[in-house]
Design goal:
The structure is a single chain. The chain is mostly helical and 116 residues long. Helix content is 75%, strand content 0%. The longest helix has 17 residues.
Length: 116
């Protein structure tokens, strides 16, 4: 089965397996790490720690990857209920020309400011 078919069939175990095999071949592929992180968040896995480990791998490749910062912020906010100060500073320093990503960053920023 190919990756797209596994995703479309909502076969999470197969999706995870395919992505991990592809990462063995291409361990610096950020898009694959993002896909694996999102896969780890799916029901029935709901493995936030594994998702964060994938994000850590992305930071090893690209320390300021905007997608990873947004994803990490969402995971930490929704699963742990807070964003630590270091991540918040990284989020605030992020500049983005993509309007949709900028809106997500702004939303996370304002949510965090209401907790202070």
């Amino acid at each position: 089965m190919d990756l797209r078919k596994a995703i479309n069939n909502q076969n999470i175990e197969e999706t995870e397996s395919i992505i991990k095999k592809e990462l063995e071949i291409n361990p610096k592929n950020i898009q694959l790490w993002l896909k694996l992180s999102l896969t780890e968040l799916q029901f029935s896995f709901e493995d936030y720690e594994s998702a964060l480990q994938c994000i850590s791998q992305i930071y090893n490749i690209a320390p300021c990857n905007i997608d990873a910062i947004i994803l990490e912020t969402g995971i930490r906010w929704h699963s742990f209920g807070f964003i630590n100060e270091e991540l918040f500073k990284r989020l605030v320093k992020t500049s983005c020309t993509d309007e949709k990503k900028a809106a997500i960053i702004y939303n996370h920023y304002t949510m965090n400011m209401t907790k202070i």
